[in-house]
Amino acid sequence: MAPASSSSSTPVLQTGTQSWRPTKIMNVHDLSKDDDFLSHLLVEKLGTGTVPLVVHKMDSSSKLPKTDANDLMRIVRRLVVTKGPLHQVVRSAVDELLTFPAVRYYLRSYTQKQINAFATHASRYFELYSPSGVIEIAHTSRYSHHTGKSELCVLATRPLAPGTVITELKGSMANLTDEEDKALKRAGMVDSDIRRDFSVIHSKSMKKNHLFLGPARFVNHDCDNNVELFREGRYITFRVLRPIAVGEEITAHYGDGYFGKRNRHCLCETCEKNGRGGYAPTPQDDNVSSSSDSDSDSDTSSSSDADSDVEEKPEVNLNERRTRRGVYAINASKDEESDESENEDDNTVPLAGAKDIPTDPELEGSVDIDASSDLTSLPTDEPNSPPRSVSSALTPLSERGSSSSLTPLSSLSTGSVTRSSSRKSTPFQSIITTRHQSRQVTLQTSREGSSLSASVTPLRRSTRASSSLGSSSKVTSTKGKEKAVVTPASTPASLRRSEKEKEDVSVKKEEVEARVLRARPSGSDRTETAKEGPPKKESPRGPDGKLLPVCATCGNVLPVIVVDHKVVWGLGPESKKGKKHKQDCPRCIRHFAIYQQPWPVRTPAPGSVISWTPRDLTPADNASKSSKKVLKYLKRQAQAEEATTLKKRQREETDDSPRPSKKMKVSEKIVIKVKPNTPTNPSQRRGVVDDQPVKRKRGRPRLSSPRIRSKVQVEPEVVIKIEEESVEASFKRNFSQPRATNGRFGRKDKPQRRSSDIVASMLTKSPKSPKNGSGKRADDHSRGTWTSPRRKRGNDEDIEEIEDDRRTKISRTESDDPDTPKPHQKVMPRRTSGFKGGSLLSNPNPLRFALHAWAGPVVLDESSSEDDSSAPDTPEDVLSPAPEILTVEDDELSASALLPAPPSLHAPLIYKPSPFAFSKRRWVALSGLPERLASARKQAPKDERQDDDDDDVDSCEGDKTEASDAQSKTASYSSRWTAKSFQGENDVS
Ligand SMILES: C[S@@+](CC[C@H](N)C(=O)[O-])C[C@H]1O[C@@H](n2cnc3c(N)ncnc32)[C@H](O)[C@@H]1O
Question: Where is the stretch described as Disordered (predicted)?
Answer without folding.
Answer: 275-546, 641-842, 860-893, 930-989
